[in-house]
Amino acid sequence: MRETPNINVAYADDHIAVRKGIVTFIEKFGGITVNIEADHGKDLIKQLEKAPKKPDIVMLDIHMPYMDGFETVSLLKKKWIDVKILVLTAYETEVYLIQMINMGVNGYLLKSCHPQTIKTALESIHEYDVYYTDATEEHFFKKVQRGEIKLPHFTDRELEYLKFCPTDLNYNQIAAKMGTTVKAVDGYAARLCEKLYVKGRIGLAMCAIHFGFVKVDMKEQNKFILNHKKYRS
């Protein structure tokens, strides 16, 4: 029987009571050790730079002082391109989720989830580089990654729509970009969801990134981060 490796985690969240509670819960399950705890992004980067051994996964919140989640993810990816990241936040905003996926995070969870879900997400990211909140999506992704099944055939229009999924454009804007109607866009989305075993645009965005249909545009990410900082200030 293959022994399950221990997963080493770094966790940044300025809400100390919340952070301590989550750390206690997930470590009780076994197989996970939180080696680094940080109060915000700057603190996290500083600790990672000094750490003799980098963690397997970085877990972080979005809203933090000094350096928020978007800035932190951007800097993490610049310093350590292969870093695996799980976002754990109270923000359910679709544009935030899509933007984080587009920036290369490996999973996105709400703090309202059960601690067991956090453990499951960390294990999935550690082994398969990604966590989908829907079991069917994750099962499909794993089979494709293992080479057990191939991706289905996509029409040119479906591929065109898929590339718009990890953006902040709404359906009306996507329809205008594609020179078609919202009804037609809904049709592309429905067929893609059926082919990729996902339940909505978020799942399609994750597939677009992780299957390589969309490349991360760092200029666009930096523009989003700057706009986000202006909005907060």
Description:
- The protein is of the alpha/beta class.
- It has two domains: 7-131, Rossmann fold, CATH 3.40.50; 148-232, Arc Repressor Mutant, subunit A.
- The chain is built from eleven helices and five strands; from the N terminus they run E-H-E-H-E-H-E-H-E-H-H-H-H-H-H-H.
- Helix 4 (94-102) runs parallel beside helix 10 and helix 7 (156-164) packs across helix 9.
- The N and C termini lie far apart (54 Å).
Strand content: 5-15%
**Multimeric status of the protein:** single chain
In CATH's first tier, which class of the largest domain applies?
Alpha Beta
As for the CATH topology of the largest domain, it is Rossmann fold
Q: What's the total helix number? A: 11
Report the CATH architecture of the largest domain. Answer: 3-Layer(aba) Sandwich
Apparent shape:
globular
Which structural category do the helix and sheet elements fall into?
alpha/beta
Going by CATH, the homologous superfamily of the largest domain would be Response regulator
Whole-number total of structural domains: 2
Strand order of the largest sheet: 2-1-3-4-5
Radius of gyration: 18 Å
Helical fraction equals 40-55%
